[in-house]
């Protein structure tokens, strides 16, 4: 069975785990202190009564709210709820999504897909009152710290502040754009020091003043894997995607955020962005940001005066695999085994297309824009001119090339492969400078980046991040300057790295939708 949620009891070392078959276990020993059968479908929420006599309330997809006495905990009875009109006893008519005890344990609430909130006595579970308070599914409900109010978050794109008798005190409609869509659905809420914080399906956090009902701030971020990072003009830029729905009704679009690392807050880019996942980010020498998406488009964006998409758009004739940007040049390799080249002054026009005789896996452009490196699935790296003519073939790896990065000055190139090895190349000579950097990453290397001072960092599928020190010439295996293990970095692996400022800080992103910064100086 799949774990859905967990709640701990105050003053007791017990833990309730939400499953189709709910159990209570001692946190410190793992011993069972209750086998709470009764639900016939998945349990969505569980709540502890924090004072004696202890009680546990559960809410499930079988439309039931159940109460348990203990310890050891056993079923008391399923408690029906009261309808808002006749006062007849009935159950929820759809999934019960949440259940919460009030701070003083005198009451417990439940909220459901049937748009109702119900109140029960906190000790014996007797039904007190129920009311239909929204025009859509209620995904979350929380008591205020003083127990006098309830905040609810709903699929009708609103948050409501109710009194403890379920009368509406404030209603806040949260629609991000002129045209409300599914991304505005409110799926979570919590009372915090700053007010009520509500979370939308589109990943916006809205901070609401419960007294006035005003939205005092909106914070954005990512809720899907982050695939690209870029340091530009004193800000960190990240690329990802967002999605909702299933089947033919699903929607997916690209997401680019700009982060102020001094506050940890992000801003959205205005304008029309990508309609699919953002694959790569790059920076032209004039400060223009270029993003590459799986919608087969390149989009030029600016940071000043405000983050804005749409300075120019380039349509690609095939699905991109990787993008590199340097100087005035951008290069994209595609699933059609082509290399597409476009210069900054010709954005908006069709890129030049150069057929490749191998399957490309990654691409990088020299910082001065004078050369292009393409890594192949055939274990080789090709060095090409800015016009796409092949100059050298670098052959040292024994597995498919997975990532490339030029060092500042364009004289060195780092390549990583699926065999966990990194090679540093002399670009002019086409020969390896340092090799044998193998075994430090236990799995495929996913990303490489150089700091402004030429320090190399690498990330892997296992989540490990390595910051390398001086790399002497030859087949040496110098110990890393820093190594961060996957248990402390990103669940699912590292997808992107970028040095911040002068290189004293390294930013990393992963499949866990998180961005982290590390002091590496």
Automatic annotation (TrEMBL):
<dbReference type="InterPro" id="IPR019775">
    <property type="entry name" value="WD40_repeat_CS"/>
</dbReference>
<dbReference type="GO" id="GO:0030042">
    <property type="term" value="P:actin filament depolymerization"/>
</dbReference>
<keyword id="KW-0677">Repeat</keyword>
<protein>
    <recommendedName>
        <fullName>Anaphase-promoting complex subunit 4 WD40 domain-containing protein</fullName>
    </recommendedName>
</protein>
<dbReference type="GO" id="GO:0030864">
    <property type="term" value="C:cortical actin cytoskeleton"/>
</dbReference>
<dbReference type="Pfam" id="PF00400">
    <property type="entry name" value="WD40"/>
</dbReference>
<feature type="repeat" description="WD">
    <location>
        <begin position="487"/>
        <end position="521"/>
    </location>
</feature>
<feature type="repeat" description="WD">
    <location>
        <begin position="89"/>
        <end position="130"/>
    </location>
</feature>
<dbReference type="InterPro" id="IPR015943">
    <property type="entry name" value="WD40/YVTN_repeat-like_dom_sf"/>
</dbReference>
<dbReference type="InterPro" id="IPR011047">
    <property type="entry name" value="Quinoprotein_ADH-like_sf"/>
</dbReference>
<dbReference type="GO" id="GO:0051015">
    <property type="term" value="F:actin filament binding"/>
</dbReference>
<keyword id="KW-0853">WD repeat</keyword>
<feature type="repeat" description="WD">
    <location>
        <begin position="394"/>
        <end position="435"/>
    </location>
</feature>
<feature type="repeat" description="WD">
    <location>
        <begin position="131"/>
        <end position="163"/>
    </location>
</feature>
<dbReference type="InterPro" id="IPR001680">
    <property type="entry name" value="WD40_rpt"/>
</dbReference>
<feature type="repeat" description="WD">
    <location>
        <begin position="36"/>
        <end position="69"/>
    </location>
</feature>
């Amino acid at each position: 069975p799949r774990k859905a949620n967990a709640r701990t009891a105050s003053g007791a070392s017990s833990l309730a785990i939400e499953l189709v078959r709910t159990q209570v276990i001692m946190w410190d020993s793992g011993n069972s202190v209750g086998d709470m059968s009764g639900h016939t479908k998945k349990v969505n929420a569980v709540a502890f009564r924090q004072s004696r006599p202890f009680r546990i309330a559960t809410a499930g997809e079988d439309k039931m709210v159940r109460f348990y006495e203990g310890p050891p905990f056993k079923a008391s009875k399923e408690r029906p709820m009261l309808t808002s009109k006749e006062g007849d006893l009935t159950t929820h008519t759809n999934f019960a999504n949440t259940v919460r005890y009030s701070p003083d344990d005198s009451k417990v609430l439940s909220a459901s897909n049937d748009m109702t909130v119900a109140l029960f006595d906190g000790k014996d579970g007797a039904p007190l009152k129920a009311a239909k308070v929204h025009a859509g599914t209620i995904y979350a409900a929380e008591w205020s710290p003083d127990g006098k109010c309830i905040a609810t978050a709903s699929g009708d794109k609103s948050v409501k502040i109710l009194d403890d008798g379920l009368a509406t005190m404030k209603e806040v409609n949260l629609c991000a754009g002129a045209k409300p869509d599914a991304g505005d659905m409110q799926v979570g809420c919590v009372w915090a020091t700053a007010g009520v914080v509500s979370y939308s399906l589109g990943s916006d956090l809205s901070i609401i003043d419960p007294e006035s009902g005003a939205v005092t701030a909106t914070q954005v971020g990512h809720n899907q894997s982050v695939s690209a990072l870029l340091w530009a003009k004193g800000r960190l830029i990240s690329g990802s995607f967002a999605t909702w729905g299933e089947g033919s009704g699903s929607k997916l679009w690209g997401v680019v955020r700009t982060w102020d690392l001094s506050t940890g807050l992000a801003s959205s880019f205005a304008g029309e962005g990508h309609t699919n996942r953002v694959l790569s980010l790059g920076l032209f020498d004039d400060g223009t940001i270029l993003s590459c998406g799986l919608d087969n488009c390149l989009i030029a964006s600016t940071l000043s005066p405000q983050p804005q998409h749409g300075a120019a758009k380039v349509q690609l004739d095939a699905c991109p695999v990787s993008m590199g940007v340097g100087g005035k040049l951008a290069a994209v390799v595609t699933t059609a085994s082509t290399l597409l080249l476009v210069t900054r002054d010709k954005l908006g026009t069709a890129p030049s297309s150069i057929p490749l005789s191998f399957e490309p896996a990654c691409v990088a452009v020299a910082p001065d824009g004078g050369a292009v490196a393409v890594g192949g699935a055939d274990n080789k790296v090709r060095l090409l001119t800015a016009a796409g003519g092949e100059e050298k073939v670098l052959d040292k790896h024994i597995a498919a090339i997975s990532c490339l990065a030029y060092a500042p000055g364009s004289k060195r190139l780092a390549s990583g492969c699926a065999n966990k090895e990194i090679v540093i190349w002399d670009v002019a000579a086409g020969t390896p400078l340092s090799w044998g950097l193998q075994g430090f990453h236990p799995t495929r290397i996913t990303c490489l980046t150089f700091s402004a001072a030429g320090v190399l960092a690498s990330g892997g599928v296992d989540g490990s991040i390595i910051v390398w020190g001086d790399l002497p010439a030859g087949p040496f295996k110098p110990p890393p300057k820093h190594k961060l293990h996957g248990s402390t970095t990103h669940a699912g692996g590292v997808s992107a790295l970028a040095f911040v400022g002068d290189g004293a800080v390294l930013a990393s992103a992963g499949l866990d939708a998180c961005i982290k910064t590390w002091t590496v100086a």
